[in-house]
Amino acid sequence: MLMCRDLAHIASDYIDGELRPMDKVSVKMHLLMCGHCRTFIGNLRASVDLMQMHSSQKVDEELVKKIDERVAESLRLKD
Amino acid sequence: METATHQTDEERLIQGLKSGKEADFQKAVRLYTPGMMAVARFYLDNGSAEETVQDCWVTVIDAIHKFEGRSGLKTWLHRVVANRAKNHLRKHKREVSTDFSESLDPELASRFAPNGRWATPPSLKFNDSAQALMESRALSDCLDQHLSHLPEAQRSALMLSEAHQHKSEDVCNILDVSASNLRVLLHRARQKIFLMVESFQETGEC
Q1: What are the residue ranges spanned by the domains of chain A?
Q2: Among A67, A73, B46, B181, which has the highest number of CB atoms less than 10 A from its own CB?
Q3: Residues B191/B185, Cβ–Cβ less than 8 Å
Q4: Which residues contact B48 (CB under 8 A, 6 or more apart)?
Q5: How far is B22 from chain A (nearest CA, A)?
Q6: Alpha-carbon dihedral of residues B99, B100, B101, B105, nearest 10 degrees?
Q7: ipTM of this complex prediction, to 2 decimal places
């Protein structure tokens, strides 16, 4: 029988629809009976949504300026 | 980071790059550098990654003429960086070592009893939608902070798959990992984010 710990191992595969049909059935059965795991899956899914919206990897201004300078110089050399 | 949402925006940008317009390079550099750094950091330390990304942009001036648009500009740029980073590794005879053996985060693993049931179950539901959660500036800053502490391999996998929404096939290609190893990296990273949000909701602190 699938235990909570087993489910935690394969939770991402379940969320992404990557499980084999038999395993998917086991997870669904477990979720019917286990409120903690339902919360876990719901929260993990919310974490995924959060990451998909969080594209705020900040632009490193210093690095970007260095790149601008090098690109500008190379463009001038080409002319 | 914003992305060029409309195909036409991207096409216009590519045209500008091909014509060597400095303003378009500046625009592209701001759009794509964070993702390119995520790729480079998978392979290299921060200093070498920055150098590699700078060098890439210089090579893009000529290489863009060979870009045929079979993939999106972002995917193409990420591949250019990955190849350059791999060459850098080969020159310095280093290998990336990553542990793919355990799919469960140790902190999460410690919350299960020996019988496999939850000993410390998830304490509460993330009560807001992701949209509402993201509106919390403090949470967003906390997320940035935690992302910067993730192991490089996990962070790159998460950024490329989720923030940049690459297809998993492309991520495997760019990061040179198998599909199953990518799944382990992603799962490990997601658990860290889950633990972070949970702790943030409980304590209100990062």
Answers
A1: 4-78
A2: A67
A3: no
A4: B40, B88
A5: 6
A6: 80
A7: 0.82
Are the C-beta atoms of residues B29 and A61 closer than 8 Å to each other? no
Query: Residue B29: pLDDT above 80?
Result: yes
- What average pLDDT does this structure show over B111-140? 84
Interface of B with A in 103-122 (CB under 8 A): 103-104, 108-109, 112, 115-118, 121-122
List domains and CATH numbers for chain B.
7-91 (1.10.1740.10), 106-203 (1.10.10.10)
Phi, psi values for residue B118, rounded to 5°: -65, 130
Task: Give the mean model confidence (pLDDT) for residues A7-15.
Answer: 95
User: Please, which pLDDT band fits residue A55 given cuts at 50, 70 and 90?
Assistant: low
Q: Which CATH architecture has domain A4-78?
A: Orthogonal Bundle (1.10)
